[in-house]
C-alpha cells in the first residue's frame, strides 16, 4: 500500500492508542521512514486535532534526542505522519530484557532524555507522556523521545489546545499537578522522567497500587524511598525530580548536566551495560512494560482528587 503516492508501506512495527506505525520507504528520496496512520474509528474532530498536534509538537523540536518528523497530511479520509525510522528498541523492552540498569547506565539514558526535553521546553512544548515505552534506544546508543500525541504548547491559548475529558497519560509516571488536572509546565516532564529513572534503578516505578486511581493518590501524598543502590548525591537529585511542588524540581538542563557528571565519573562498564545499548538490530516496536499495560488510562477529574 502506498500513502500520498510516495510512502510504500512494508510492515507494521508498532501500535498505539492513536494509530498504527509502519516501516516504509520514501519513494521520492529513497530512504526508510516510519509512517503512522490514524486508526480507523479515530477520525473524529478531536482525534484528528490530537494527531495534528502530535505532528506540530514534534516538528518544532530540533534535537538528536527527539524522533524527527518529515511529513504530515490527509490519507483516505484520515491522516498520516511520517517520521524518522529508529532502528533499535524501547526502554520498556530493555527493562524487561535486562532488568534494572546500573546507576551510570541509567544516568546516560536520563541525561540524553533530558537533553531532548530541554530542546522541547525551549520551544514551549510539554510532552506530558514521558515513560519507558516512549523512549527509544537506537542501536548506536542514542536515546530518542517519541510519541507527542498528548503534548501541549505553553504559549497557546486554551482555545488552541486540544479538548479532552479527564487526565490523559500513564498513571505510574504522572506528575502530581497533572493528577490534580492543574495547568502544567516543563516540571511535569521532569517528574515523569524522575519516575523513569527510579524504575531504571529499581525495576519498578516509585509508586505502586492496585488501581490507577490508587497510584495517583500516591503521587499526591506518597514519599518514595531512596533507592539503596545509589549514592547519597544521586539519590538527592532523584528525589528532587520527584518533588511534589513543581518549583522544587530541577529543569531539564540541570538534570542533563548532573547525569553527564555521573556518566563521566562512573562510565558504564562492558559487557553488561554495553548490551543495553547494543541489542539485536530489530525494527522498533512499541513494547510496554507490565506497569504501563495496566495503567494507561483516562481518568475523570473527580477520580484524581
From TrEMBL:
Enzyme Commission number(s) from the entry: 2.7.11.1
Tree of life domain: Bacteria
Occurrences of domain Protein kinase (ranges): 7-269
Top enzyme class: transferase
Keyword Nucleotide-binding: yes
CDD domains cross-referenced by the UniProt entry: STKc_PknB_like
Binding site for ATP: 36
Molecular-function GO terms, alphabetical: ATP binding; protein serine/threonine kinase activity
Swiss-Prot/TrEMBL keywords: ATP-binding, Kinase, Nucleotide-binding, Serine/threonine-protein kinase, Transferase
Protein name: non-specific serine/threonine protein kinase
Amino acid at each position: 500500500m502506498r500513502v500520498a503516492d510516495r510512502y510504500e508501506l512494508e510492515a507494521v512495527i508498532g501500535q498505539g492508542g492513536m494509530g498504527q506505525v509502519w516501516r516504509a520507504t520514501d519513494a521520492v528520496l529513497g530512504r526508510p521512514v516510519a509512517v503512522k496512520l490514524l486508526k480507523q474509528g479515530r477520525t473524529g474532530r478531536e482525534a484528528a486535532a490530537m494527531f495534528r498536534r502530535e505532528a506540530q509538537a514534534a516538528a518544532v523540536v530540533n534535537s538528536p534526542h527527539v524522533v524527527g518528523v518529515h511529513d504530515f497530511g490527509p490519507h483516505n479520509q484520515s491522516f498520516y505522519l511520517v517520521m524518522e525510522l529508529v532502528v533499535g528498541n524501547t526502554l520498556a523492552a530493555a527493562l524487561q530484557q535486562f532488568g534494572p540498569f546500573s546507576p551510570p547506565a541509567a544516568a546516560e539514558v536520563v541525561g540524553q532524555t533530558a537533553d531532548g526535553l530541554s530542546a522541547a521546553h525551549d520551544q514551549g512544548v510539554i510532552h506530558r507522556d514521558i515513560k519507558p515505552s516512549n523512549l527509544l534506544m537506537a542501536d548506536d546508543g542514542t536515546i530518542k523521545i517519541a510519541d507527542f500525541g498528548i503534548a501541549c504548547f505553553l504559549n497557546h491559548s486554551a482555545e488552541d489546545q486540544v479538548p479532552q475529558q479527564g487526565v490523559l497519560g500513564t498513571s505510574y509516571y504522572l506528575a502530581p499537578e497533572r493528577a490534580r488536572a492543574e495547568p502544567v509546565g516543563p516540571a511535569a516532564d521532569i517528574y515523569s522522567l524522575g519516575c523513569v529513572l527510579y524504575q531504571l534503578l529499581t525495576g519498578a516505578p516509585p509508586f505502586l497500587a492496585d488501581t490507577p486511581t490508587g497510584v495517583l493518590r500516591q503521587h499526591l501524598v506518597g514519599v518514595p524511598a531512596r533507592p539503596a543502590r545509589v549514592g547519597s548525591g544521586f539519590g538527592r537529585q532523584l528525589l528532587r525530580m520527584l518533588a511534589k511542588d513543581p518549583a522544587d524540581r530541577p529543569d531539564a538542563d540541570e538534570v542533563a548536566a548532573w547525569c553527564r557528571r555521573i556518566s563521566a565519573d562512573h562510565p558504564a562498564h562492558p559487557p553488561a551495560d554495553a548490551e543495553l545499548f547494543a541489542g539485536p538490530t530489530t525494527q522498533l516496536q512499541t513494547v510496554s512494560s507490565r506497569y504501563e499495560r495496566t495503567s494507561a488510562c483516562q481518568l475523570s477529574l473527580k477520580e484524581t482528587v
